[in-house]
Amino acid sequence: MGTRFMCTVEAPIHLNVKKAIVEAKEEDTELVLRRWRNTSRLFSNRVAREAVKIEKESSSGKFEEVAPYVSGKRGREVFLNGDVDYGVWTAGQVIGLIHDIPTCSHLITRIEKEAEETLIRASSLITGTQYPPEAWPESPAPAAESHTPPSDTAGKAGPETPGTVEKDINNPAAEIWGVGKSKL
């Protein structure tokens, strides 16, 4: 979520960094400092790639060789000056799923809506809770209310009640297609 919220209107970082996040793919990160068991995932820029090269090719294995490249001071300057190659900065693999720069309010509303839709789709994997897409909510339910999907078995108790997970009705072999693939 850190990378996602870096790319919001309110995030106090340079617009060039936000644009770099929007243009990036999942593969645009580097794992750095693995040799010292202090692994960090960083945006793949000139400095991060050089740090990885030094780390892999170093014969001495001394941290001092890579330290100037992974300095937090240089990374902080990236957010201020907007030069994405000036220093290293952390970014998760989610970077490839970020395609816009929304406000925090809009982003949170979207996350809530997508979470609710995902839960409804996932609940359909439990026998007795098959909800067609037209039953899915159009927008997130207000926080004070809870969304209850339509049911023919409302009021019934036992294993036939939608959402009930019991030994004989759970479907562990079901696969959820599309969950997690929506764009953040």
Question: What can you tell me about this protein's structure?
Answer:
- With 184 residues, this protein is mostly helical.
- Helix content is 30%, strand content 4%.
- A two-stranded antiparallel ribbon has the order 1-2.
- The longest helix has 20 residues, at 104-123.
- Residues 142-184 have low confidence and may be disordered.
Oligomeric status: single chain
Number of helices in the DSSP assignment = 5
Q: Whole-Å distance between the termini?
A: 10 Å
Strand order of the largest sheet: 1-2
- Secondary-structure-based class equals mainly alpha
Radius of gyration: 23 Å
Principal-axes shape call: elongated
As a percent range, the share of strand residues is under 5%
DSSP summary, beta strand count? 2
- Give start-end ranges of low-pLDDT stretches: 142-184
Tell me roughly what share of residues is in helical segments.
Answer: 25-40%
Biggest pleated-sheet summary = 2 strands, antiparallel
**For the residues shown, what is the average pLDDT?**
79
Strand-and-helix sequence, N→C?
A: HHEEHHH
Features:
184 residues, mainly alpha, two-stranded antiparallel ribbon, 5 helices, 30% helix, disordered C terminus
